[in-house]
């Protein structure tokens, strides 16, 4: 069962549709954030809602509903679903006929049963397809995912496209990216990428555990000498990478990936709300 | 009155909505093309439908309806509307739950009364706001217009954002761009931009009239010595530019702009279908 909250009611997602005059359809003006539950409690809910608000603000959209009310709806949605849940909260530019700068944004929330990557992916690692471009407006979590589809067409095994403008690896289409080089965890600086919630947590946990974290874009040319690579995201958590384009990563799910997974598992509770 | 054709019927646009599970909403997977009428006949219809097909194909979407049938629907829509019409034909990625690579794309067509830019704009020229990025996948006319909104927030007078990656002017958010330098008409090469239908026509007319057309990106640094600048599009035709960022164009609607407008007006008939 998949639910959608829209216009003050919960409905089956099959019954829910958005006016074609909404700017999300007309002009791709839409932002969202993804949240998951552990033991039926939303993880890092406040951080996600704050980021949703900031994504919207960067385009000039004010949230059409308070964050407190959003949290209430999310809790009600979780209660209505069986088992663990993944949610996407969307905010749109509102109707094109409203004129002006987004006077009446719309919002809706989709609730689905939690669907993690298959277990094998955590053992064998996933494939990323490098593309020579930057994610447009990296601080905004917009609905623009065309590069992901175009990237994956070029490599059927690829789970995600990997943004590598001029050979500098920033992030993948739906995840943050990390590469272990000379024992250090290297990841793009926050100015260049979406400040992923899981990314923030992984950096914090790594530093607390005394691991070196270097905030610079790993280079595509460094892949051959990388010891490990992984991507992170709210639903996938910490997922090892086995191949980037034609280049294999020497160790899949190596000691640092496993250590971080272990540290994360121990601290999930801290972020449940 | 605004009409929408969807699911084999014409309805008022207010009654038309798209399932939230469509990839156009979920992931911004949508392409479109804009067509206008002159004397109730669609202009360059076949060229537009061909380009729509190519935009879709570049993402991996096959048109869910033949171009011949699309043309029939468009003619019927034009008949149902009063006066001149502008239409946007949209093709979406289809439902996210369909799985696979776009097995069931959706399409819909919006019909609106033709709305040209105000007459003053043709006399006084419009303002463009330069942004330091390339339009992603310039050959695809996708629904991704966030840069236009973000650009216009920075300059309230701006009609469109002007893509200027590394100072090279490619195109504006909804138009092709031309600048007259040393008496030559300079415009980005086709590899770098959307191959606009009006752009093709303007280049052809200019060359036939013996004007020099140089296919290279005009530079932002060349704006101070440009004699004229204009943008082109199916609805706006040939629209003069008066300012790009903080730099004024020396002559607004100068001799070359006016000559091309004149040549275009004489040849509209050739493209009516």
pLDDT average of chain A, as an integer?
96
The total count of helices of chain A amounts to 7
* CATH homology-level superfamily of the largest domain in chain A: D-amino Acid Aminotransferase, subunit A, domain 2
Secondary structure category of chain A: alpha+beta
The CATH topology of the largest domain in chain A is what? Answer: D-amino Acid Aminotransferase, Chain A, domain 2
Number of strands of chain A: 16
Q: What number of structural domains do the residues of chain A give? A: 2
Low-confidence stretches of chain A: none
* CATH architectural arrangement of the largest domain in chain A: Alpha-Beta Barrel
Major sheet characteristics of chain A: 9 strands, mixed
**Order of helices and strands of chain A, N to C?**
EEEHEEHHEEHEHEEEEHEEEEH
Determine Rg of chain A (CA atoms, Å).
19 Å
Structure characterization notes:
The structure is a homodimer. With about 270 residues, chain A is an alpha+beta fold. Chain A has two domains: about 110 residues, D-amino Acid Aminotransferase, Chain A, domain 1; about 150 residues, D-amino Acid Aminotransferase, Chain A, domain 2 (Alpha-Beta Barrel). In chain A, about 25% of the residues lie in helices and about 30% in strands. Chain A is built from seven helices and 16 strands. In chain A, strands 8, 9, 10, 11, 12, 13, 14, 15 and 16 form a nine-stranded mixed β-sheet that branches. A six-stranded antiparallel β-sheet of chain A has the order 2-1-7-6-4-5. In chain A, a hairpin with a 2-residue loop joins strand 11 and strand 12. The longest helix of chain A has 15 residues. Chain A is globular. The two termini of chain A are about 25 Å apart. The mean pLDDT of chain A is about 95. Chains A and B meet through strand 3, helix 1 and helix 5 of A and strand 3, helix 1 and helix 5 of B.
């Amino acid at each position: 069962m998949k639910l959608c909250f829209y216009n003050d009611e919960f409905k089956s997602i099959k019954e829910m549709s958005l006016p074609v005059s909404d700017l999300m359809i007309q002009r791709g003006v839409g932002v969202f954030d993804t949240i998951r539950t552990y033991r039926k409690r939303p993880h890092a809910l406040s951080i996600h809602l704050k980021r949703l608000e900031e994504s919207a603000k960067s385009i000039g959209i004010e949230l059409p509903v308070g964050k407190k009310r959003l949290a209430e709806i999310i809790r009600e949605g979780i209660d209505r679903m069986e088992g663990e849940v993944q949610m996407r909260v969307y905010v749109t530019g509102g109707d094109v006929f409203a004129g002006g700068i987004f006077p009446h944004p719309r919002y809706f929330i989709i609730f689905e049963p939690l669907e993690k990557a298959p277990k094998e992916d955590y053992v064998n690692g996933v494939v990323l397809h490098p593309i020579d471009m930057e994610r447009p407006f990296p601080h905004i979590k917009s609905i623009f995912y065309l590069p992901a589809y175009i990237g994956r067409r070029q490599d059927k095994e690829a789970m995600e496209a990997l943004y590598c403008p001029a050979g500098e690896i920033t992030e993948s289409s739906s995840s943050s990216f990390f590469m272990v080089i000379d024992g250090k965890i290297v990841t793009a600086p926050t100015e260049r990428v979406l400040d992923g919630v899981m990314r923030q947590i992984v950096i914090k946990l790594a530093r607390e555990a005394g691991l070196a974290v270097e905030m610079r874009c790993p280079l595509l040319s460094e892949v051959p000498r990388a010891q490990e690579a992984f991507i992170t995201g709210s639903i996938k958590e910490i997922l090892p990478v086995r191949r980037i384009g034609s280049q294999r990563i020497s160790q899949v799910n190596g000691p640092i990936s496993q250590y971080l997974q272990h540290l994360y598992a121990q601290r999930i509770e801290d972020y449940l709300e």
